[in-house]
């Protein structure tokens, strides 16, 4: 099964929007979402602080910031 990582933080409206997009895409494709709070790791905080949310699969960043459904769909589909 494809496993996506979503780097985010609490009280982030862009992160909430990204989760909605991911859940909508899960209706079409089967994948797991692992949500990771960047504030739990100093390295992640420094790496992704101004980029969140960040959607990644197999260490490839698929999208970040404002997540667009069609763009993310095109990126995810190649993993199926």
Describe this structure in words.
It comes from Priestia taiwanensis. Keywords: Coiled coil. The chain contains three helices and four strands; from the N terminus they run E-H-E-H-E-E-H. The chain is of the alpha+beta class and 80 residues long. The chain has one domain (2-79): Glutaredoxin (3-Layer(aba) Sandwich). A four-stranded mixed sheet has the order 2-1-3-4, covered by helices on one side. Strand 1 (2-8), helix 1 and strand 2 (31-37) form a beta-alpha-beta unit.
- Describe the global form: globular
Annotation, overall tally of beta strands: 4
The total number of structural domains is 1
Order of helices and strands: EHEHEEH
The CATH class, by name, is: Alpha Beta
- Tell me, rounded to a whole number, the average pLDDT: 96
The major beta sheet can be summarized as:
4 strands, mixed
The helix content is 25-40%
The name CATH uses for the topology is Glutaredoxin
Which range does the strand content fall in?
25-35%
Q: What's the CATH architecture name?
A: 3-Layer(aba) Sandwich
Distance between the termini: 9 Å
Low-confidence parts lasting 5 or more residues at pLDDT below 50?
Answer: none
Trace the largest sheet across and list its strands. 2-1-3-4
* CATH homolog superfamily: Glutaredoxin
> Rg, please?
12 Å
Total of helices:
3
By helix and strand content, what is the structural category?
A: alpha+beta
InterPro entries: Glutaredoxin-like, Glutaredoxin-like_YDR286C, Thioredoxin-like_sf
Coiled coil: 15-42
Protein name: Thioredoxin family protein
Pfam families: Glrx-like (PF05768)
């Amino acid at each position: 099964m494809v496993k996506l990582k979503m780097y985010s933080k609490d009280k982030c409206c862009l992160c909430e929007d990204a989760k909605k997009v991911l859940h909508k895409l899960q209706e079409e494709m089967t994948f797991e979402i692992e949500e990771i709070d960047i504030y739990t790791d100093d390295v992640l905080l420094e790496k992704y602080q101004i980029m969140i949310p960040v959607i990644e699969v197999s260490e490839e960043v698929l999208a970040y910031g404002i997540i667009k459904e069609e763009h993310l769909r095109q990126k995810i589909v190649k993993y199926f």
